[in-house]
């Protein structure tokens, strides 16, 4: 029998926290019914529980309902994913995976003007965290062929920054279960990597245009277009 979000949440709370069954049940019900947050009006009823425990319960309930595939509002799911992404990026700053531009300049020994040029042409990119720009530390690691790494960064510059970082570090079957960072030394590997990077980047620069007969401000839903055209356009270049 498939487990519901309530079942999973209760099991996980019981495994992690020492709470009476009736209290855990009440918390799960209230949190699940309020966009996965304990209603402010009910906080006093659980005043013996620290804020960090309440926050952990909210996370457990949210994860449980997602795991069960139960209806979670698009807004709630989007907010949750954004929170997870921000938390992950903050952790990357804490463990040194993302560094400030001033630190990056020192690591590779370049001027402010040279860094600005690299950022402008896509050879280096930044990741925004709490409205502050950071640069992936791996772009400064001496173990990598920096010239070739910057060339790959320019090819994939059409993609969002966090996607570029994932591309560079993720192992791929098409690369023999290696990551792009492991393909920079060999000439043959680098040629293969350039082709893969170009194909991957095209997914972020593809656009389509539909032409309809007559004048219309928005595309009509019940009329087939006369023509549909698709092309790969680098958004950095003017049309």
Task: Describe how the helices and strands are arranged.
Blueprint: H1 5-16, H2 21-33, H3 51-67, H4 74-94, E1 98-99, H5 101-108, H6 112-121, E2 127-129, E3 132-136, H7 146-155, H8 161-169, H9 187-202, E4 206-211, E5 227-232
Antiparallel strand pairs: 1-3, 2-3, 4-5
Q: What this model shows, in words?
A:
The protein is mainly alpha-helical. The protein has 2 domains: 5-72, no CATH class; 98-202, no CATH class. Helix content is 49%, strand content 9%. It is built from 9 helices and 5 strands, in the order ααααβααββαααββ. It has helices at 5-16, 21-33, 51-67, 74-94, 101-108, 112-121, 146-155, 161-169, 187-202; strands at residues 98-99, 127-129, 132-136, 206-211, 227-232. The protein has a 3-stranded antiparallel β-sheet. A two-stranded antiparallel sheet has the order 4-5. A hairpin with a 2-residue loop joins strand 2 and strand 3. Helix 1 packs across helix 2, helix 1 packs antiparallel against helix 3 (51-67) and helix 2 (21-33) packs across helix 3. The longest helix has 21 residues, at 74-94. The protein starts with a helix and ends in a 7-residue tail after the last strand.
Please outline what is shown here.
With 239 residues, this protein is mainly α. Helices cover 49% and strands 9% of the residues. The chain contains nine helices and five strands.
- Derived structural class: mainly alpha
Count of alpha and pi helical runs: 9
Query: What general outline do the C-alpha atoms trace?
Result: extended
Share of β-strand residues: 5-15%
How many whole angstroms does the radius of gyration measure? Answer: 24 Å
Could you give the order of strands across the largest sheet?
1-3-2
Report the helical percentage: 40-55%
| The number of domains | 2
Q: Quick one: how many beta strands?
A: 5
Task: Tell me the distance between the termini.
Answer: 57 Å
Q: Please, what is the average pLDDT?
A: 86
Unreliable segments (pLDDT under 50, ≥5 consecutive)? none
Biggest β-sheet: count, sense, barrel?
3 strands, antiparallel
Order of helices and strands: HHHHEHHEEHHHEE
């Amino acid at each position: 029998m498939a487990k519901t979000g309530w079942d999973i949440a209760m099991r996980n709370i019981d495994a992690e926290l020492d709470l009476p069954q009736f209290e855990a049940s009440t918390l799960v019900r209230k949190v699940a019914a309020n966009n996965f947050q304990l209603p402010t009006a009910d906080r006093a009823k659980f005043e013996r529980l620290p804020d960090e425990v309440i926050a952990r319960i909210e996370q457990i309930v949210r994860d449980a309902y997602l795991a069960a595939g139960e209806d979670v509002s698009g807004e709630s799911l989007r907010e949750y994913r954004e929170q997870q992404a921000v938390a992950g990026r903050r952790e990357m700053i804490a463990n040194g995976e993302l560094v400030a531009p001033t630190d990056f300049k020192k690591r590779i020994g370049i001027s402010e003007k040279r860094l600005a040029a690299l950022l402008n042409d896509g050879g280096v990119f930044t990741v925004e965290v709490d409205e502050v720009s950071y640069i992936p530390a791996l772009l400064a690691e001496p173990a990598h062929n920096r010239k070739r790494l910057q060339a790959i960064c320019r090819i994939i510059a059409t993609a969002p920054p966090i996607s570029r970082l994932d591309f560079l570090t993720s192992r791929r079957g098409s690369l023999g279960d290696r990551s792009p960072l492991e393909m920079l030394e060999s000439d043959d590997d680098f040629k293969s990597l350039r082709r893969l990077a170009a194909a991957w980047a095209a997914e972020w620069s593809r656009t389509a245009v539909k032409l309809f007969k007559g004048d219309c401000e928005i595309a009509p839903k019940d009329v087939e277009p006369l023509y549909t055209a698709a092309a790969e356009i680098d958004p950095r270049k003017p049309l």
